[in-house]
Amino acid sequence: MNSAASSTGANGATGATGSLRKPSLRERAERLLSVAGPVDPILAAVVVTLVSFGIVMVYSASAIEATVQHKDAQYFLKRQVPFGFVGLGLAWLISRIDYRRYQKASATYGILAIVVVLLVAAIAGFGKTGGGATRWLALGPVHVQPAELAKLSIVIWLAYSLAKKGEDVMKSFALGFLPQLIMALFLMALCLKQPDFGSAVVLLLLTFTMMFIAGAKVGYIMGAAIIGSAAGAALVRFREYRWERIQAWLEMEAHRQDLAYQPFQARMSFGSGEIFGLGLGKGLQILYLPEAHTDFVSAVVGEELGFVGIALLCAAYVTLVVRGVRAAFKAPDDFGTYLAFGISTLFALQVLINLAMAMSLLPTKGLALPFMSYGGSSLLVNAIAAGILLNVSRHARDAEPVADPNATPDPPGVEISKDALA
What we know:
Blueprint: H1 2-10, H2 15-19, H3 25-32, H4 41-70, H5 75-94, H6 101-107, H7 110-126, E1 128-130, E2 133-139, E3 142-144, H8 146-170, H9 173-192, H10 197-214, H11 218-237, H12 240-250, H13 261-273, H14 297-330, H15 334-358, H16 376-394, H17 418-421
Antiparallel strand pairs: 1-2, 2-3
């Protein structure tokens, strides 16, 4: 019996020796890439469609500018396509990683710490300046925008914090409301230092929305929103370039040749597209609309594919958000619910603000359209967020149950039958 036991232990199946054996690299990879059920096929299809359509529109919007500036009509296309493939690969890979692993990382503040270091590095002289702001860090061929990572990291941390506290604690100002607000304000301050006013606003709206869903008192949220609105108005009024943008937005006709040139040309693009558009690749406003392939790519969609194209694009985004909220409702735990709802809210806020800005319903603000605007940093972060959302959909309550990878397994031989619990 002793020899059998030692033999079994040597093989790592049972016994004291086997229990101490370190898992192999393959075993650790298999545990990491734990898959419960299938992903939401509609959600996955929408993500793939948006990334693919975004690459097409980036090429259509940038061909002339690329020819003039870089003597290569496919200059921006050649840079966006690799990010598209990498982004889809990341989304697939992350969709196979159990979302509950981020809960442990949030408990140690690991994700937030990395983002804070990147934000500080960007404003401490290591960042790349463009458009009057220092928002990028050059990591080899990739320019990382820490503010994009901050949006996703605050969602993950809030999901952990809100799930841990529960609805009863969320009614408390000191324990349920103030800690989340302080963390959001800290990240907002780092974004404003770049400066990146748009990202700061998104961070605050994300925090308010998730706290509302978690059961925080509406009075606390409304009070903080009023104070935040007053602070935002002061930041706009007493910073000259921001105030000039507001004036240009209010009097666009008077400033259409200077401060309001870009939003005015974008509005002309939407109008010239009419119902069915001028045809893919046949838009004329890209001759006059600066940086059309970045924050104003939706204006090119409006001109080339018309109202129908914009309506279909909006339908795709609505489907993305609705399926994300569906995954939140079907998540097996509070962390998954808050995580999926937060990511869905993140997508919704960015789309609404970008489209409203491009249509001159809001003042101009640099905020990318998810999966569509040119830029690897935004595309990759959105792909990661979509991958997490897809993984939450794998664990829907109507799918086969899956064990928590962080849970301690029961000792051998200790099993309780359903009949014993009846």
